[in-house]
Amino acid sequence: MGAHSVVVIGGGFIGLEFASVARTLGATVTVVEAASRLCGRALSLAMSDWLLALHRDNGVSIKLSKGIARFEGHGAVTTVHLDDGTIEADVVVVGIGSEPNDQLAMNAGLEVSASIIVGSDLKTKANNVFAIGDCARFPAFPWLQPIRLESVQNAVDQAKHLAASICGAAAVYRKVPWFWTEQFGHKIRMAGLSQYGLRTEIVPGDACGRFNVRHYLDNRLIAIDSVNDAKAHVAARKELASVYCSG
């Protein structure tokens, strides 16, 4: 890798995956995150803490609750100025997520709220107009307010559902959300929405680094995170089907 000092702005999945690869290739890596923990919108506190330890154990400098004041450089960034200091950098990667642009939908008269509002069949309130993927806010599950999911799985599953619906197989869209990421050789697979959990149960694994984290809301199991345990992840998706796909 040509760069020696890499600064990653954003401690979400994209930023952390890039940090993992850059550090493995020998670069000095600093991750700057404005929030108080990593992947705060998507992971439980237990998994955020585990990711923090994983990156620090592999030599990544993690700076939490830090803002960016400005970038400095001529033709390329050479210095990142934080609220309380500076970091020299050969490469700066910004991975801070995105906000949905619902202006087109608003102009078309659709119902919007930092997203396009759809029903459980993914239809908007306009005839024959649907919205799917990252832009759509849908009533996913009986026990949760309408949400917007940013994941490949959700976009693909909603596209398949919509195609079937257009062909006459109308039904309510219900799928177990799942996601995965690989960092420093560890595969983290998530089933369900752990960020809504209020109680966490850690299930120890073995010496190979396997373990699982079960998340509960009002004694209802709503998510299972599996680290280095593909079989447990497959079982988790089946176990959670009764929570996400019924009702």
Query: Major sheet, described briefly?
Result: 5 strands, antiparallel
Number of strands: 14
Strand content: 25-35%
**Helix/strand/pairing category:** alpha/beta
- Sequence stretches where pLDDT stays below 50 over 5 or more residues: none
Q: In one word, what is the shape?
A: globular
Number of domains: 3
Mean pLDDT: 91
Estimated helix fraction: 10-25%
CATH architecture call of the largest domain: 3-Layer(bba) Sandwich
CATH topology of the largest domain: FAD/NAD(P)-binding domain
SSE succession? EHEHEEEEEHEEHEEEEEH
Radius of gyration: 20 Å
> What is the first-to-last residue Cα distance?
51 Å
Per CATH, the superfamily of the largest domain is FAD/NAD(P)-binding domain
Under CATH at level 1, the class of the largest domain stands as Alpha Beta
Strand order, main sheet: write it out: 10-11-14-13-12
> Total helix count?
5
Pfam families: Pyr_redox_2 (PF07992), Reductase_C (PF14759)
Cofactor: FAD
Keywords: FAD, Flavoprotein, Oxidoreductase
InterPro entries: FAD-oxidoreductase/Apoptosis, FAD/NAD-bd_sf, FAD/NAD-binding_dom, FAD/NAD-linked_Rdtase_dimer_sf, Reductase_C
